[in-house]
Each structure stands twice: as C-alpha cells, then as structure tokens.
From TrEMBL:
Amino acids binding Zn(2+): H18, H31, H33
Source organism per UniProt: Mucinivorans hirudinis
Entry keywords, A to Z: Lyase, Metal-binding, Zinc
Protein name (record): 6-carboxy-5,6,7,8-tetrahydropterin synthase
Top-rank taxon: Bacteria
Signal peptide: none
Catalytic activity as recorded in UniProt: 7,8-dihydroneopterin 3'-triphosphate + H2O = 6-carboxy-5,6,7,8-tetrahydropterin + triphosphate + acetaldehyde + 2 H(+)
EC number: 4.1.2.50
Co-factor(s): Zn(2+)
Cofactor note: Binds 1 zinc ion per subunit.
C-alpha cells in the first residue's frame, strides 16, 4: 500500500486570564478565558514493521506531552501580561500571593499567543512531523488560526 501523508489533530484546553495594555476596549481589564487549542500535524505513517509505532504519524501521547509541557502547564490558571515595567513590578509585588503570573514578550492576544505556540512547537515536535495548523478558541464563538502555508 502506498504511504500517504496524514494529518492528526489533538485538542487541549486551559484556563487563563490576561489584560491588554493600552487597548481601547474592555479587554484592557483583567479577564479570563476558557481556551481551546487545536494542534494539527502532518506526516507519513511509519512503515517499519519492527517499530511499535507502525502505522502512526506520531503517537498522540507525544503530542500531548509536548504541548502540555511547553504551553498548557505554563499558562493554565495563569495571569498573562505583556512584558513592561509596570507589569514586571506588579508580578514582583504579587508573586507570593498569586504564583502564576506569566510575563510574555508580546501583547497577550490570541493572535500573538498562536505565533509563540507555533514557534515552540516547530522546535519541539519530532522531525518526522510537520506543524500544519493551530486554532485557539478564546471564547466559544471566537478563535484565531495559524496555518503553516501562510507562514513559509
């Protein structure tokens, strides 16, 4: 049988709060989201009959481990703020009370989070798979999407 490329998608969820510095709407205030992240990879299933991963592009548990370690475990139940003097000072003053304050080098919008996630996953995923798409739902009805074909 001819081996063909297959796409796999794994869904993740995490809770996080953020505030958008300088924004001209309600999102300038601290508020939270129930994020849903969809990670899609592509590759050719393993054809080595001696390999326990025969027929797999990548084990779903490997995707889960990588995304949890580098994204979900870091952001879940965190307050995510842009890296600036005021936010760094806020973090230092409150880290003993609220340990999960994540300072990021960008405005923590859904779009910018996806850009960071794509960068991380491209480095961490096995070389035999290609990151194809990311979709991050910020609300039940609103999401941003990153596609490899748009970012060659």
């Amino acid at each position: 049988m001819e081996r063909q490329k297959i796409r796999l998608t794994r869904e993740f969820s995490f809770e996080a709060a953020h505030a958008l510095d300088g924004y001209d709407g309600l999102c300038r205030n601290v508020h939270g989201h129930s994020y849903k992240l969809f990670v899609t990879v592509r590759g050719v299933p393993c054809g080595d009959e001696t390999n326990p991963k025969l027929g797999m592009v990548v084990d779903f548990s490997d995707i889960k481990r990588i995304v949890k370690q580098h994204i979900v475990d870091r952001l879940d139940h965190s307050l995510v703020l842009a890296d600036n003097r005021d936010n760094r000072q806020f973090r230092e003053q409150n880290i003993n009370k609220w340990q999960r304050i994540e300072i990021v080098p960008y405005q923590p919008t859904c779009e910018n989070m996806l850009t960071e996630f794509a960068h991380i996953l491209r480095q961490e995923l096995p070389k035999c798979v290609e990151l194809v798409a990311l979709k991050l739902y910020e609300t039940e009805k609103s999401y941003a999407e990153w596609l490899a074909q748009d970012n060659c």
